[in-house]
TrEMBL record, chain A:
Annotated protein name in UniProt: Peptide/nickel transport system ATP-binding protein
InterPro entries linked to this entry: AAA+_ATPase (IPR003593), ABC_Ni/Peptide_Import (IPR050388), ABC_transporter-like_ATP-bd (IPR003439), ABC_transporter-like_CS (IPR017871), Oligopep_ABC_C (IPR013563), P-loop_NTPase (IPR027417)
Leader sequence segment: none
Organism: Brevibacillus centrosporus
GO molecular-function terms, A-Z: ATP binding; ATP hydrolysis activity
TrEMBL record, chain B:
Gene3D superfamilies assigned to the protein according to its UniProt record, in alphabetical order: P-loop containing nucleotide triphosphate hydrolases
Family matches, as PROSITE patterns: ABC_TRANSPORTER_1, ABC_TRANSPORTER_2
Biological processes annotated in GO: peptide transport; transmembrane transport
Name under which the protein is recorded: Oligopeptide transport system ATP-binding protein
Coiled coil: none
Family: Belongs to the ABC transporter superfamily.
SMART domains recorded: AAA (SM00382)
Example GO molecular function: ATP hydrolysis activity
InterPro entries, alphabetized: AAA+_ATPase, ABC_transp_ATP-bind, ABC_transporter-like_ATP-bd, ABC_transporter-like_CS, Oligopep_ABC_C, P-loop_NTPase
Organism: Brevibacillus centrosporus
Keyword S-adenosyl-L-methionine: no
Domain ABC transporter: 15-265
Pfam families on file: ABC_tran, oligo_HPY
Length: 331, 330
């Protein structure tokens, strides 16, 4: 593939929060990039930092939390050092986000039509009636029946999946160059999910849009992503082309994740899962953060933190087992 | 209702819903005149045996959450009956309802909106025990820690507030809250949709363990068919406010009869690289305000016949014990 400048480049990002008088890194040094027209999937255990990563990119971390280190380059410009006004032009206009919980980002006191129309007002030059027509069109695109009636409804009058689709319609309102979608289809049944994913792919082709797709659904990852990032406890533990990661996962955490799929259990037998819990940020061990749950843990894992090593033809994994297999450390 | 084989044999019906309807008036204009009705739930009947899990699946907006909210009495029905443990809930006095509510808990689809933003997790979990006067202060605290362990949340999180959690962590708080009072029936609305698969597996194992231990009964709403297949005894498929198929899990997944169920089954994304044949549903999702005549699925059905456009197919048993509402099996 021809090497072009990535649309988004995240370098050694760190995001810090304070809770009960202590501060901690929720994101602890992650590096990745997304090229034009590419879709990157982000997977990882609940609480590992996927949403915080996307909120950091969007500049939406609320005080007392903050991005405390690293760079976020959008087409070469560092978003962290950008002024409020410049940032506003990029965020929501050239980068759009679909949030994980629709109710946290839809305003309960405005109608659905108002909210989409407002987004169009900020980001396009459309007049009033053109905005209304476009709003209805967007809602129809995401498969909402009776769109003309829904625009006068308030968010609480919609079903969970309808709210999620309103969010998607809003994010697409301004033809973004980069779309960050945080679990965009979790509340959707499979037929509508298929339809939405199809729509995203279409838009991607049409506008050469790049996408960062956070999801725990590995089936979705398999169908729409080019590359995958696997996160664990605030770090990237494995990344690479989608088929390499899903077919031959090298990190024990990724392997455990794939083994937990319900279809890998038969009938009413118990499901496989990775025993133990992700340690909370303040209890991260000095060595590999997966060590306490890893079936292959060695002495070295508890002492030293593994960097990313070449694991497959184009993939990398942060695991000492992989390093012993002859890989060389990248980071 | 026609007999429901295995699950029904020798057990007791815990929940029986019949002819349940919820219609919302559509109000428009300055005078808020009613210009139509949204038939969110339009004549739903099913029953759940004690200790059984009934899965409910169906297209977004088909009325799953509304059905759940009606059963748990967060919504007033337009019509129909809901019997829980032999009591008719639709005519119960508020004081009697309070006692029943303790035995019925719901895990909400949107965890953020259902948690009190200014309460710590500990407070949220202790509240139901306070309301019903259960346990000493110390016992209540111990119970909170036990619940956090159960749902795989670190004990140190007890003193944190909802906004300090990730989406999946909040969902688990919602599950813990439903378990506090050890209810008889849990209505779970997309309880694991925000969880990664490993934690999803832990939570599902937990729900199954609790079911075995306490003979818990679940009404389990989810669009994740592999999860539904794993956890349910029987599954109901809804479309536009009605049940179109209801059958034992294995039968439903191996030989789905209703054309909508068939399309649903074929749309599941696969982790393996090879793509499979998909039945793509053509046509727009119809509006519950103007449901199509006859079989409401006829506008999108590949097997649509003339009779489908005029006559509503009743939900009835076909040879294999499956209940299906489709003229193909008449
Ligand atoms: N505002 C906040 N204050 C304190 N801690 C926070 C805050 N927001 C997130 N965290 C913590 O940061 C960590 C990462 O959270 P994040 O929301 O990124 O997880 P996630 O990977 O998106 O998980 P999920 O799959 O459950 O949505 C979690 O441990 C969470 O508790
Ligand atoms: N308060 C309300 N006023 C008007 N219509 C409503 C109201 N609440 C729900 N509806 C409508 O009822 C229908 C069913 O909604 P419900 O929330 O039960 O769907 P659902 O099956 O749970 O969908 P999802 O899978 O998306 O969560 C939807 O068309 C919705 O717009
Ligand atoms: S580094 Fe060690 S502990 Fe960590 S995943 Fe690899 S083998 Fe397991
Ligand atoms: Mg998240
Ligand atoms: Mg719902």
């Amino acid at each position: 593939m021809e090497r072009q400048q990535p649309v988004l480049e995240v370098r050694d990002l760190r995001t810090t929060f304070r809770s009960q008088g202590q501060s901690f890194h929720a994101i602890d040094g992650i590096t990745f990039s997304i090229r034009q027209g590419e879709t990157i999937g982000v997977v990882g255990e609940s609480g590992c930092g996927k949403s915080v990563t996307s909120l950091s990119i969007m500049g939406l971390i609320k005080s007392p939390g903050q991005v405390s280190g690293g760079q976020i380059l959008f087409k070469g410009k560092d978003l962290i050092s950008l002024g409020k006004k410049e940032l506003r032009e990029i965020r929501g206009n050239r980068i759009s986000m679909i949030f994980q919980e629709p109710m946290t980002s839809l305003n309960p006191v405005y109608t659905v039509g108002n909210q989409i129309s407002e987004a169009l007002k900020i980001h396009t030059k459309l007049g009033r009636s053109a905005r209304k027509a476009r709003t209805i069109e967007l809602l129809q695109m995401v498969g909402i029946p009776r769109a003309e009636e829904i625009i006068t409804d308030y968010p609480h009058q919609l079903s969970g999946g309808m709210r999620q689709r309103v969010m998607i319609a809003m994010a697409m309102a301004c033809d973004p160059e980069l779309l960050i979608a945080d679990e965009p289809t979790t509340a959707l049944d499979v037929t509508i999910q298929a339809q939405i994913l199809e729509l995203m792919k279409e838009l991607q082709l049409k506008h050469n849009m790049s996408m960062m797709l956070i999801t725990h659904d590995l089936g979705v990852v398999s169908e729409v992503c080019d590359h995958v990032i696997v996160m664990y406890a605030g770090m990237i533990v494995e990344k690479g082309p989608v088929r390499e990661i899903l077919d031959r996962p090298q990190h024990p955490y990724t392997q455990g994740l794939l083994a937990s799929l319900p279809k890998n259990a038969k009938g009413n037998h118990r499901l496989n899962y990775i025993p133990g819990q992700v340690p909370p940020p303040l209890q991260w061990p000095a060595g590999c953060r997966f060590a306490d749950r890893c079936p292959h843990v060695m002495d070295r894992c508890r002492r030293e933190k593994p960097g990313l090593f070449a694991a497959g033809p184009a993939s990398e994994a942060a695991c000492w087992l992989v390093s012993e297999g002859g890989g060389e450390q990248h980071a | 209702m026609p007999n429901q084989s295995k699950a029904a044999a020798g057990t007791e019906t815990l929940l029986e819903v019949s002819g349940l309807k919820k219609h919302y008036p559509i109000k428009k204009g300055v005078f808020s005149s009613t210009v139509g009705t949204v038939k969110a739930v339009d004549g739903v009947s099913f029953s759940i045996q004690r200790g059984e899990t009934l899965g409910i699946v169906g297209e977004s907006g088909c009325g799953k959450s509304t059905t759940a909210r009606l059963v748990i009495r967060l919504l007033q029905e337009t019509e129909g009956s809901i019997r829980f443990g032999g009591k008719e809930l639709t005519s119960l006095a508020p004081s009697e309802l309070r006692a029943v509510r303790r035995d019925m808990q719901m895990i909400f689809q949107d965890p953020y909106a259902s948690l009190h933003p200014r309460w710590t997790i500990e407070r949220t979990l202790i509240e139901p025990m306070l309301v019903y006067g259960i346990g000493s202060r110390g016992e209540q605290r111990d119970r909170v820690l036990e619940l956090l362990d159960n749902v795989g949340l670190n004990r140190s999180y007890a003193k944190r507030y909802p906004h300090e959690f990730s989406g999946g962590q909040r969902q688990r708080i919602g599950i813990a809250r439903a378990l506090v009072l050890q209810p008889q029936l849990i209505i779970a609305d997309e309880p694991v949709s925000a969880l990664d698969i490993s934690i999803q597996a832990q939570v599902i194992n937990l729900l199954q363990d609790l079911q075995e231990q306490y003979k818990l009964t679940y009404m389990f709403i989810s669009h994740d068919l592999s999860v539904v297949r794993h956890i349910s005894d029987r599954v109901a498929v809804m479309y536009l406010g009605r049940i179109v198929e209801l059958a034992e899990k294995e039968k439903l997944f191996e030989t789905p009869l209703h054309p909508y169920t068939q399309a649903l089954m074929s749309a599941v994304p696969e982790v393996a690289g090879d793509k499979k044949e998909r039945i793509i549903l053509r046509g727009d999702v119809p509006s519950p305000a103007k449901p199509p005549s006859g079989c409401t699925f006829h506008t999108r059905c590949a097997s649509c016949m003339d009779v489908c456009k005029t006559d509503i197919p009743p939900l009835k048993e076909v040879g294999s014990g499956q209940l299906v509402a489709c003229h193909l099996y008449a």
